[in-house]
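Design request, tokens follow.
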């Protein structure tokens, strides 16, 4: 796999049945490459052989999955056939191809809108727009890695955009040379549904092919209270100490804030807590003083806000 996250994913409890895991082990592209070298295998000297069936048979729709935008194209190749959506004859959607962090396309006379995004920062911005009502789409594709799976952490390390673009071009070229370009044209997939899965979106298909995800935090509690006092009008101070904010100095801000409140005997004026994720990791350190949320916070800035809050309560 091109993705190091697959190593964790295969260990999820729902992917084990009757004590047997669905996947024994995940090897990244880097790892299998090292194993090939260690075994002394000379690829140039190997005689070509057919891939094992049925897993060795793929359509062009499966080939382009590794590119950002490839999943959307594959979905549309299926949808265009099933729902009579007019798309280009060669089913090449140039609007969703490219290297920009966000691409958009409108099809079917404006009735089908889609967005393709890669990189979690870009994904967060897109989610914010959708939640606020600024944008609306029928299909949204998100890939965490730049360029999609071709830029995955398990892939051979690349140092230039040109190398990533070369991988992308190779997958699109492979798609062109495939005899079939739509997933529904794969005869082995058809046999699988007839023999076991019944039909797309059947109960059996959902049971075997689908899973669900939930928000995960390293620490279950939302926050850890670090101060106590008796004041009724206490100002809340929340300092994020999640990994990203911690590395940017939030731990020092928290320690100096507690010290400042203690030295000035302001314990009855402030309610101080450490939080474990403010969901704004790229803007850390993140600190909230009362209703004010400060991104990229600096100690002097936080001390000034606390002093003003204390003066207001003392008066």
């Amino acid at each position: 796999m091109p993705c190091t996250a697959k190593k964790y994913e295969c260990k999820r409890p729902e992917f084990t049945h009757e004590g047997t895991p669905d996947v024994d082990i995940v090897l990244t592209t880097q790892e299998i490459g090292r194993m090939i070298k260690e075994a002394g295998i000379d690829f140039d000297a190997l005689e070509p052989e057919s891939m094992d069936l049925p897993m060795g048979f793929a359509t062009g729709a499966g080939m382009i999955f590794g590119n950002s935008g490839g999943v959307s194209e594959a979905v549309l190749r299926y949808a265009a056939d099933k729902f009579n959506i007019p798309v280009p004859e060669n089913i090449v959607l140039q609007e969703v191809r490219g290297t920009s962090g966000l691409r958009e396309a409108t099809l079917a006379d404006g009735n089908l809108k889609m967005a393709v995004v890669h990189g979690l920062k870009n994904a967060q911005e897109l989610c914010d727009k959708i939640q606020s009502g600024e944008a609306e789409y029928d299909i949204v594709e998100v890939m965490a890695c730049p360029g999609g799976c071709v830029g995955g952490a398990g892939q051979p390390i690349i140092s230039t955009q040109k190398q990533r673009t070369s991988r992308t071009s190779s997958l699109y070229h492979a798609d062109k040379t495939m005899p079939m370009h739509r997933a529904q044209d794969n005869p082995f997939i058809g046999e699988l549904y007839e023999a076991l899965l019944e039909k797309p979106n059947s109960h059996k298909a959902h049971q075997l092919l689908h899973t669900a995800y939930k928000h995960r935090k390293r620490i279950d509690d939302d926050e850890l209270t670090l101060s106590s006092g008796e004041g009724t009008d206490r100002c809340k101070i929340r300092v994020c100490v999640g990994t990203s904010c911690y590395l940017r100095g939030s731990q020092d801000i928290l320690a100096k804030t507690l010290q400042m409140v203690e030295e000035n005997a302001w314990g009855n004026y402030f309610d101080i807590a450490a939080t474990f994720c403010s969901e704004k990791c790229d803007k850390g350190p993140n600190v909230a003083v009362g209703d004010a949320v400060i991104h990229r916070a600096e100690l002097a800035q936080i001390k000034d806000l606390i002093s003003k809050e204390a003066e207001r309560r003392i008066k």
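Comment from the thread starter after seeing the answer: thanks! The domain at 50-209 is CATH 3.40.950.10 (Fe-only Hydrogenase (Larger Subunit); Chain L, domain 3).
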